[in-house]
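Sharing a chain and its predicted structure for anyone who wants a worked example. Both blocks are below, sequence first, tokens second.
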Amino acid sequence: MDSSSNEVIRDCPPFFKVYKDGRVERYFVTQPVPAGLDPTTGVQTKDVVISPAVKARIFMPQSTTPGQKLPLLVHYHGGGFSIGSAFDTFTYKVAAPLAKQANIVLVSIDYRLAPEHPLPIAHDDSWVGLQWVASHANGQGPEPWLNDNADPSRVFLAGESAGANIAHFVAVQAGATKLVGLKIRGMLIVHPYFGTREPSDNELDKYFCPTSTEFDNDPIVNPAADPKLNEMACERVIVLVAEEDGFRNRGEAYYETLAKSGWRGKVEFFETKGEGHCFHAVIDNHNTEVLKNKMVDFINKDI
């Protein structure tokens, strides 16, 4: 092998490095969890294919009974748009307990990752996922679990980190295109990633999304730049941040943007003290339980 092929031309810790020959090496590869029955929560999972590029995992609580329609939450995983999946341990740790505690059907959408698939491919895949979910609204979609158990009039969106960015994107798309079939009651924006005007952020965002314009004009990294923001198809939003998270102020800025955007919904803000980015997907402690309960309460408030 030509030694020059081992030359790193782009290093993006903690996510990946790109070599001169085009190889991508990730610093961290998440571990998959097989679908099936979780003996701890009683949640049953099933993997489905939405399109050749997009897949999903469905989380079904044990309390489901024939004919019972439960609220539906559509989830987007984090990972800097470049690591993670709907099928890994981090998503499982967040999704399975939430499905049980809130007594909801949860669908986690698996989108293609950067840098092999530059943004906005992840956002486009995620939008395809939500449209697929909406195809079950009349009870005649391709997936029986959703036809039989999910209530399209009680839908929530959620995501953590990059997934929160994506959840926001699809909520705006749903409103701007007047997506038929789903009534989106609320959205949970957990430790969100959005851009800033810092040169290092702009450079990274440009690498992830070669078609991106500058921060001031790019709705993907700057929701305030989106002329369709006030059309967002969502009645309520909760923005959850962590005090020690480097993205904490970006979450607060998003909250403030929504509050003054002209969007007619209600937005609330919750901060976990003494914790870092997406701590709840890694550790179990008192703050993890408080955050989970806050999310469950937000969902149940509307049911």
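Comments welcome. Residues 162-176 form the longest helix (15 residues).
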